[in-house]
Amino acid sequence: MPGAFSIIENTWITLTDGRKLSARMWMPDGEGPFPAILEYLPYRKRDGTAPRDETTHPVFAAEGYACVRVDIAGTGDSEGAFDDEYSEQELSDGEAVLAWIAAQSWCDGKIGMIGISWGGFNGLQLAFRRPKALKAVVSVASTVDRYADDIHYMGGCLLSDNANWGSQMFAYQSRPADPEHRPDWREDWIKRIEEMPFMAADWLRQQTRGDFWKHGSVCEDWSAIQAPVLAITGWADAYVNAPPALAANLSVPAKAMIGPWEHRYAHIAKLDPADFHGEVLAWFGKWLKEEDTGAGDLPDYRVYMQEHFNPTMQNKPRQGCWVAEAAWPSPNVQERVMHLGADVLADAAASGTLAVSSPATAGQASGYFCPGMRFDNELAGDQAGDDALSACFDTAPLAAPLELLGRPRVRVAFSVDKPVAQLVARLCDVSPEGVSQRITFRPLNLTCRDGFEAPRKLVPGQRYEAEIELNECAHHLRAGHVLRLALSTSYWPVVWPAPEAAEVTLHLEDCALVLPERRVSEEIDPQAPGAPRDYPVLQAEQLRKPGGTSRTWTREDGALVLDTFDDYGKAVDPYHGMCAGSHVSMHYEVHPDDPATAAFASDWNFEFGRGGWQVAIDTENKVTCDRENFYLWRRVTAFEGAGKEVVLTKEWQEVIPRGVL
User: Fold this and answer.
1) Average pLDDT, stretch 586-603?
2) Which end of the chain has the lower number of beta carbons within 10 A, N or C?
3) pLDDT digit string (tens) for 76-103?
4) Does 386 fall in a domain?
5) Are residues 99 and 236 in the same domain?
6) Same domain, 370 and 514
7) Are residues 569 and 461 in the same domain?
């Protein structure tokens, strides 16, 4: 039976250099000592993640775990300066936090780490460093390769979310500590703003897979991780490649699970929520409490095998079923090669050439890069419009169902007319009615044809070969449907366009699609997660309801514009009375005939208050480009008091050469 617990609103963890990190704890009643669960984030435990924390840590504490939620240095109420994501400071501080927890009288010395996205990343990264007390990890929506599979670059191409995420972190960094915990909040607030790094620019300067990105990429040495890992994500999420990679490569117990979810813990997902708590409790029960929970006997890879569901950009239920592979890689998955011909995918190789050249606006149905971050209107929609702007290769209507599980690959022989060019591959399931559902995608910067550490510009007219390994997928195509490979030279707004419009000529005799075809004579029990169990919800007083809008329109000069607005609402926390609200507007634009007109802008607004304490922050960001450079600009304005008196205004700007982007 679940037990009682108490909440400790704030505890200070003092580091060896005197900095103090702020922690909130959920402590089980009883004698103890208890195993502990750590979640370590820069997103403010006091208000930022408080609604989500209310749905997780109380459930775990009631099951006998001491739960500790820590703000990273320089964020939330923690002291010190924030320097960058997954920095050496963050990870060495994390090791100190683990050691501190293990040394407390209420802890039995066994700790598990949990987290989604940032917390999923640093859970793996800390396991890589082998701290003694870290015995197990639940990593959700994470990566094993920070260059290949994060929010900055994909396939050597710049993602527009490098600018978007940079603008979000700029806004997040500008928020003050809570005066209830930090009497020096105002001095610290001003210092935080004055000294905050320009991360969007810092990341943009690191355009190849060098030491900057190798730091924190656990794929550099799989054997370093010795704590068992449960890796979870959802097909609507951006982070789909890590779970099967961990299951395939770790030498310690590692299990992968991919459901239909967006970028959220599964129990609070908008897309077919599931019992996330049960998965976590079984995993930590096995490795922290040494209980027979069955977690060690799970199939290596449990996946929601999706089917065609008439995609829209709005949240709606998925269609499919759960399947599992006892071992991963699986003998049930074999490569099937199909060849690219004149608009067809066929078993026999073709000959001749075919030109691929797309307007810079191709990609309007791509959706938001990481669904789950916006209010709605963020999923990939019907791809038919983007297919019309691409070179498409179709099978005949399938005589029998086709099941895919893994990462398809596209081999291309090509020549180009520009020194820098992109090729974006999408695999789609096309219904008999012509609705095209994206199964998976991935871009490749063709200057990275030989690797991502030392790209080389292309010589126009010269013949090259390259391979695009698409993102992980699990998809069941019904008989009568068509499998489509769509190739384009742009995919805006997900991928930042090349500096100028390019034409890629495919030499078809050496172009092929390699499919991971799954054939199973008898399915095993997928041990699928059940429906969400009951969990607590933060009983905040809502002063402004959340909501969002998206609008795509064409300006008089022909540029295509996407404007979005997301209001995250305004509410009063029932535990400490802080009122917090935020909203963001984003703007994307590009002219179809000139990729160098691509631009991004955003404006984030935060407001906080309690009694006579009232502050607000407005952050503005712009990224534009031409064929040679990127131009980054940002400004923050901080306000104080009911009359919103300006405390500080500061601007930054950077010019960064494009290199091969």
Assistant:
1) 98
2) N
3) 999 999 999 999 999 999 999 999 999 9
4) yes
5) yes
6) yes
7) no
Residue 603's alpha-carbon distances to 82, 555, 563, 585, in angstroms, are: 22, 21, 12, 5
Residue 536 placed within a domain: no
Question: Do 559 and 506 fall into the same domain?
Answer: no
Domain count, the chain: 3
Structural domain for 428, as ranges: 333-518
CA 324, chain centre distance (Å): 24
Q: Are 7 and 24 in contact (CB under 8 A)?
A: yes
Count other C-beta atoms under 10 Å from residue 37's C-beta: 26
Same-domain check for residues 343 and 289? no
Helix (H) or strand (E) holding 59: helix 50-62
Relative orientation angle of helices 276-287 and 50-62, to the nearest 10 degrees: 50
Residue 325 lies in a domain: no
Query: Residue 94 has what DSSP assignment?
Result: H
The DSSP element (H or E) to which 544 belongs, if any, is strand 541-544
Rounded to an integer, what distance in angstroms lies between the CA atom of residue 479 and that of residue 463?
A: 38
Alpha-carbon distances, residue 651 vs 194, 197, 200, 617, 636 (angstroms): 10, 12, 14, 14, 7
pLDDT band at 316 (very low <50, low <70, confident <90, very high): confident
Q: Do 640 and 573 share a domain, yes or no?
A: yes
| Whether 263 and 392 share a structural domain | no
Which of 298, 315, 349 is a domain's end point? 298
Q: How far is CA 21 from CA 52, 89, 93, 96, 122, in A?
A: 20, 13, 9, 10, 16
pLDDT of 116 over the 90 cut: yes
Tokens 């402590």 -> residue:
27
**Could you tell me if 346 and 490 lie in one domain?**
yes
C-alpha distance across the termini of the chain, in Å? 57
> Residue 428 and residue 431: Cα distance in Å, rounded?
10
DSSP code for 283: H
Question: Residue 392 corresponds to which amino acid?
Answer: C
Question: Has residue 565 been placed in a domain?
Answer: yes
Q: State which of 298, 324, 348 marks the end of a domain.
A: 298
SS (H, E, C) 327-386: CCCCCCEEEEEEEECCCEEECCCCCCEEEECCCCCCCCCCCCCCCCCCCCCCCCCCCHHH
The CA distance from 560 to 381, in Å, is 17
Q: Which of 29, 47, 37 is nearest to 181 (CA)?
A: 47
**Cα 625–628–632 angle (5° rounding)?**
35
Q: Mutual orientation of helices 88-103 and 118-128 as an angle, nearest 10°?
A: 80
With contact defined as beta carbons under 8 Å apart, do 501 and 593 qualify?
yes
